[in-house]
Design a protein that fits this description.
single chain, Aminopeptidase, 4-stranded mixed β-sheet, 3-stranded mixed β-sheet, 28% helix
């Protein structure tokens, strides 16, 4: 669940920024703001985050602190901290992770598309209400926008 030291060092070298949520003196959650080359998923999908965009990724909260609104608060803190460098932010979650989806929505994000496994192999995006945002997401991730 938590990133290893070598992975953290590699991320920082590629201009990804770590963020930590604290309650008093206790670190309770973390997440990353990625710029430049990054990836998601297994098998990994590699892509480049263009200047002016950020990909928010790899969030985790300590189990004792989950369900307390820390995730949406951390997302909002990152948006505020990165606002001078970025105008558009992207965040993904696993389809079955309802808690993550709720936290993302509470932070003010709107669903652009869903990622689906394609019958012919690979991944594709399915429009989730805004064809334009789905196309932008497909362009970012290098994935086709397909019909469900």
């Amino acid at each position: 669940m938590f990133a290893r030291a070598a992975e953290i060092a590699a991320r920082v070298e590629t201009v990804h920024r770590p963020y930590v949520a604290w309650i008093g003196a206790t670190p309770v959650a973390y997440g990353w703001s990625a710029a430049g080359r990054t990836r998601f998923g297994l098998p990994p999908v590699s892509f480049s985050v263009p200047p002016g965009d950020r990909y928010l990724m790899d969030f985790a909260a300590l189990p004792a602190w989950r369900g307390r609104g820390i995730y949406p608060g951390l997302l909002q803190a990152i948006l505020e901290a990165e606002a001078t460098d970025a105008a558009r932010f992207w965040v993904l979650h696993h389809r079955g992770n309802v808690a993550s989806a709720r936290g993302i929505e509470k932070a003010g994000f709107k669903l652009a598309a869903e990622i689906w496994f394609l019958d012919e192999g690979g991944l594709g995006l399915v429009d989730a209400g805004s064809e334009e945002r789905a196309r932008e997401g497909g362009g970012l991730l290098g994935l086709p926008v397909v019909e469900k």
